[in-house]
Amino acid sequence: MILWGLQTQRIGLFGIDSLIPLATSILTLAAMILVMVYLDWQLALIALLVSPLMFVLTFVFRPRIRAGWRRFRASESAAMAVAQESLGASRLVKSYGQEERKNEQLVSHYNDSLTAQLKVQVDVAFYSLLVGVVTAAGLAAVLYIGIGHVQAGILSLGSLLVVNYYVTQLYGPLRNVGQSILDIQMSMTGIERYHVVLDEKPDVPESPNALPLVRAKGKIAFQKVSFEYTKDHDVLHDVSFELPSGSRLGVVGPTGSGKTTLSTLLLRLFDPTEGVITLDDIDLKDYKLADLRNQYAVVHQETVLFSTTVAENIRFSKPNATMVEVIAASKASKAHDFITNLPNGYDTLVGERGMKLSGGERQRISLARAFLKNAPILVLDEPTSSLDIHTESAILDTIQELMKGRTTLMIAHRPSTLRDCNMILVLDDGRVSQMTTEVESVISGMNAVGVQS
Ligand SMILES: Nc1ncnc2c1ncn2[C@@H]1O[C@H](COP(=O)(O)OP(=O)(O)OP(=O)(O)O)[C@@H](O)[C@H]1O
Ligand SMILES: [Mg+2]
């Protein structure tokens, strides 16, 4: 919201910067024309013949220049996007040896943007040159005919000097009008791009009289939920199940069966295409979005760490947490010991995207975040699948602690991960193929067919 305010202010200033000189120029122009018509209407007419020419020039050049700025801004954003992407996924880029390719992409986008900028600057220079030639020709014509009028005795020399002075003054504002129009073109393309970004609809709207939610009990129900990312391509189909508060649901199913999608619907990152999801018997759509999201702690397969201190990384889930709380959460997630062994303990800077920590350590930081947030609902998306069996079993002990008293949705590939769940939902191609409390039988079934990945 603040950002939006700043942006509109900047756009506003952009507009005013160009509009005030435009208005002043137009007023000055009108006054001078009146005086000239009074002194010698023929000269005034010749002087003014220049203005239609100027308008033709502006009319021809304006769309060209505007399109040029548009191309420049588009290629500039494309270059920024590649730069941001490469920095954000530097490890991935490096591990696939893609630095060269990304560099080439970046250079090519910057070349495009440079070429676009050059082209538009050439157009602007050419336009200014033509405006200069037209005004010089106008001035010469006025002088030539004016001298004739002086010789014929129609005009006094003094009046010619005044007209001459006015014509030079007149062409100044005319040129300013042209310049202002060019400047406006440039800021307009800027505004256009802001609108492209700002007008993107939020994925999920908040209802105007949304309900506040302090702490949910954690009863969840999916009622005939279907979902599609793109039209006519159901990812989830007619999914229904109920989770009493405090239950621990394991979600299993082949890759692509919609497990992660199911969890994003619960977080209301998207709304179901059909059906309803309720929390404590109220539709998710009826809650205030920020309050709703505050009910979840989420642990993913890959922990995202920011390049700041370990303490700040843990505090991510509760920015105003005290150091005592951070340490308590780290102890609960068994991260405290390795953190205190780091060179600067909790103040150690995590390397670029957390590369200095092992997979298990990163996952413990992620669990510390979840403990710190102390949310009533826990969503775990294959939290241990990137760890070796030994680390996994240690982490699972911690997760078991974390699950206590919270409704949990645990997405898993390996049967071992499901040992602490008390219900299992099997998804197959977006449909519920089994929903059972017989956890043991599902696990042994998975072991038998070797679903292990
Ligand atoms: N943002 C998206 N836009 C379009 N389609 C998507 C998107 N995310 C997922 N899908 C598609 O939805 C289907 C289900 O994906 P989902 O990530 O939920 O599967 P999953 O069960 O979590 O798989 P995995 O076990 O591999 O994590 C897949 O076919 C996938 O291609
Ligand atoms: Mg997934």
| Oligomer state of the chains in this structure | single chain
Helical region count?
A: 13
The outline comes out as: elongated
Tell me the distance between the termini: 45 Å
Regions with pLDDT < 50 over 5+ consecutive residues? 1-12
Reported by name, the CATH topology of the largest domain is Rossmann fold
Bound molecules: adenosine-5'-triphosphate, magnesium ion
Instruction: List SSEs in N-to-C order.
Output: HHHHHEEEHEEHEHHHHEHEEEH
Structural class estimated from helices and strands: alpha/beta
CATH class of the largest domain, please? Alpha Beta
What is the assigned CATH homologous superfamily of the largest domain?
P-loop containing nucleotide triphosphate hydrolases
pLDDT averaged over residues: 85
- What composes the largest sheet? 6 strands, mixed
> What CATH architecture of the largest domain do you see?
3-Layer(aba) Sandwich
Spatial strand sequence of the major β-sheet: 6-7-8-3-9-10
- Radius of gyration (CA) equals 34 Å
* Number of separate strands: 10
Bin the strand percentage.
5-15%
